[in-house]
Write a sequence for this structure.
């Protein structure tokens, strides 16, 4: 046991002291923030010079419906932008409205089509007598497949028509605006067997972040174990160490030591996230920037917390022992990359199916993937944050992953014992089986 | 009988098709310098790994200081220098050494003192430069080997096992290694080393064991081995008459084997042959005898006689 501790100490300290650790600990969160915030920011920037504003309205109604639609569009856009950006929403140019006689509509449309093809405008909206009588309008443009933008255009036409009707009914123009602009804000909330629990959207995002973090940590630190084993094998230090400790202890020490590094990193990240949550608003205010509204994380139940830790540990131990076996099998970095493919594929299979599983967290795919031991460490926490997982499924998942861990350790320790002293060519599958049987 | 540092009995290790070590038995008394000799591929490293409990024998028992080699804590009394050397390259020298010492149960504090002593002794730590603070990869090959050697001895092991310790050493480091082995013996340690360099073995060893093809060919004290296998050897140095001399050497009634060492011949005579008749015939053949000496055979000769006969591939019994 004392020797296990010596091995753990070395594995841990050498990694924590390395530049790699310090850099990834400091820049990891920055990177994570970047990949979550930058796309959002870019979307907002995109909306600012929104394609919707860049459309042309061909108004053949003769009732000046076109300028009403343009007006609505502008207001909708301003609303959305001011919600996101707070100010300077008024810089968007107004939409061009072109009045055309019904007979010239065909000519006007072909001109507008050409303009879209030449990328002068994004698209055009056609309003004619059918719009007034049968509420039919047409849109053609590059962004015709953008659901959000088409919904906005549709909404604007609907509001303009409504305003027209109200006017015809004799409602005073000053009131028309406030009547047509009634907005509904739909707040979503999740309900499960224990009652109501936080916003549906936030918990989905939270679940995704957790799944992604688990995946990343298992991948990063599992491969770290592989590199460590390979280093010991290639530099031949393994033989010296094995004359002092049993290979099983060396393997255990490495897996535990590297795992502890991963936990340390997570601890640093969570602590700084907590600090940001507690003091972030004050800091932003002190710097003269308007504080962001505090983000309230969904309450994590103790059960989820315990399961998170368990699944991380099981997942990490399972994959890092497999990675260790790969490291012991091969003789060079290049070989390692090739031989690690199957293990990596196993792990990747869990993350590429995150989206379909989030869409249907109680579907067959989700249930199976959350029970299979090589995907459950990532998928089960994801499911748990989205839906109430039946206790039986959770128990089955935990038992299976624990068994898989035991099997992975058993097999890997044997491959490790034999492989560390082997040199020369990579063993074939048949030879591997032999190693496992005779070790 | 003196107490044994190492007692191997009937040890066999098989891999797939071939047997690496076959029913090997040997005993190393405490305080001896013991040479494990054999050509490449004879099973020396496999034997050593089994002694160190790195691999398990299929049959037989190994005891160290009277205890089974897999008993708890026994390896803390053994120091090992593997043939293929290497340490954690990215680690600071001092931390590597402390790690190796701690693995053998030495406290960090004691280890630090010993590291200082050894580093100064092997001039890795001078008033100008302390290499202990450098990373291992910054050291020259020679210095790295010194570090590895220190790592082998930091826990003051009673039994020191060195696998091909002289391979790849420059003359200065080789001398330092010899000195250390002698010092270790003087202070009562037991040293076992494997080598295929007979000169080193002859100079350093009290006892030897020659193995080939995984089997013991002979063992015993160097003196006994020589007495048993020699007596009828002649060191000869001549000038002139080369053709006639070759004819005499080819006479298998008289001469068993000749080893031309350039400056002199080492000649093994047939068991009942008379050295005097060789001298007489040489003189008759007109050779100018510059040296004619009855010698004990070198370990090298015995090695060739014993192992060469049982079929080592040509060029594998190499003399240095």
């Amino acid at each position: 046991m004392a020797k296990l501790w010596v091995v753990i100490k070395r594995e841990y300290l050498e990694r924590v002291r390395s530049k790699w650790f310090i850099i990834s600990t400091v820049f990891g969160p920055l990177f994570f923030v970047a990949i979550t915030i930058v796309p959002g920011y870019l979307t907002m920037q995109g909306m600012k010079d929104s394609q919707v504003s860049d459309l042309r309205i061909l108004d053949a109604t003769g009732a000046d419906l076109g300028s009403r639609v343009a007006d609505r569009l502008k207001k909708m856009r301003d609303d959305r932008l001011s919600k996101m950006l707070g100010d300077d929403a008024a810089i968007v140019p107004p939409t061009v409205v072109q009045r055309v006689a019904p007979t010239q509509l065909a000519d006007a449309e072909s001109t507008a089509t050409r303009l879209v093809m030449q990328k002068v405008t994004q698209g055009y909206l056609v309003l004619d007598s059918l719009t007034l009588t049968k509420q039919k309008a047409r849109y053609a443009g590059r962004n015709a497949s953008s659901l959000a933008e088409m919904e906005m255009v549709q909404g604007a036409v609907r509001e303009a028509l409504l305003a027209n009707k109200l006017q015809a009914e004799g409602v005073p123009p000053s009131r028309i605006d406030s009547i047509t602009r009634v907005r509904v804000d739909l707040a979503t909330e999740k309900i499960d067997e224990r009652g109501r629990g936080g916003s549906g959207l936030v918990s989905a995002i939270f679940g995704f972040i957790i799944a992604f973090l688990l995946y990343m940590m298992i991948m990063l630190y599992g491969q770290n174990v592989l590199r460590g084993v390979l280093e010991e094998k290639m530099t031949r230090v393994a033989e010296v160490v094995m004359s002092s400790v049993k290979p099983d202890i060396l393997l255990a020490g490495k897996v535990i030591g590297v795992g502890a590094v991963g936990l340390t990193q997570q601890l640093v990240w969570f602590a700084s996230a907590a600090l940001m949550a507690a003091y972030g608003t004050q800091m932003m205010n002190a710097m003269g920037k308007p504080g962001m509204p505090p983000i309230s994380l969904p309450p994590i139940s103790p059960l989820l917390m315990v399961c998170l830790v368990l699944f991380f540990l099981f997942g990490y131990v399972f994959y890092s022992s497999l990675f260790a076996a790969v490291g012991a099998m091969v003789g060079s970095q290049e070989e390692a990359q090739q031989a690690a493919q199957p293990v990596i594929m196993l792990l990747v299979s869990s993350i590429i199916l995150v989206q379909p599983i989030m869409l249907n967290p109680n579907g067959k795919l989700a249930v199976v993937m959350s029970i299979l031991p090589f995907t459950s460490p990532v998928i089960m926490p994801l499911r748990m944050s989205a839906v109430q997982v039946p206790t039986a499924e959770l128990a089955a998942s935990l038992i299976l992953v624990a068994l898989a861990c035991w099997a992975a350790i058993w097999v890997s320790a044997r491959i490790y014992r034999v492989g560390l002293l082997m040199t020369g060519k990579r063993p074939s599958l048949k030879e591997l089986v032999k190693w496992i049987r005779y070790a | 009988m003196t107490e044994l540092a190492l007692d191997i009995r009937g040890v066999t290790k098989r891999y797939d098709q071939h047997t690496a070590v076959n029913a090997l038995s040997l005993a190393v008394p405490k305080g001896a310098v013991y040479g494990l000799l054999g050509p490449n591929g004879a099973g020396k490293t496999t034997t050593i790994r089994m002694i160190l409990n790195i691999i398990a024998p299929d049959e037989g028992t190994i005891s160290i200081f009277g205890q089974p080699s897999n008993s708890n804590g026994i390896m803390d009394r053994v120091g090992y220098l593997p043939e293929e050397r290497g340490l954690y390259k990215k680690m600071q020298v001092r931390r590597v050494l402390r790690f190796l010492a701690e693995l053998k149960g030495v406290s960090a504090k004691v280890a630090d003192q010993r590291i200082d002593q050894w580093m100064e002794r092997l001039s890795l730590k001078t008033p100008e430069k302390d290499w202990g603070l450098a990373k291992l990869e910054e050291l020259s090959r020679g210095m790295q080997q010194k570090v590895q050697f220190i790592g082998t001895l930091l826990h003051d092991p009673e039994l020191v096992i060195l696998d091909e310790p002289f391979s790849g050493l420059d003359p200065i480091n080789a001398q330092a290694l010899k000195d250390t082995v002698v010092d270790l013996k003087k202070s009562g340690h037991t040293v076992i080393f494997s080598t295929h360099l007979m000169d080193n073995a002859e100079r350093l060893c009290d006892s030897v064991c020659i193995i080939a093809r995984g089997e013991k060919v002979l063992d015993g004290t160097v003196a006994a081995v020589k007495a048993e296998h020699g007596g009828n050897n002649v060191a000869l140095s001549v000038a002139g008459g080369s053709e006639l001399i070759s004819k005499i050497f080819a006479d298998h009634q008289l001469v068993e084997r000749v080893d031309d060492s350039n400056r002199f011949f080492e000649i093994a005579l047939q068991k009942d042959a008379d050295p005097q008749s060789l001298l007489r015939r040489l003189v008759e053949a007109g050779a100018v005898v510059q040296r004619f000496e009855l010698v004990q055979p070198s370990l090298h000769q015995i090695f060739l006689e014993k192992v060469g006969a049982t079929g080592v591939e040509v060029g594998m019994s190499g003399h240095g």
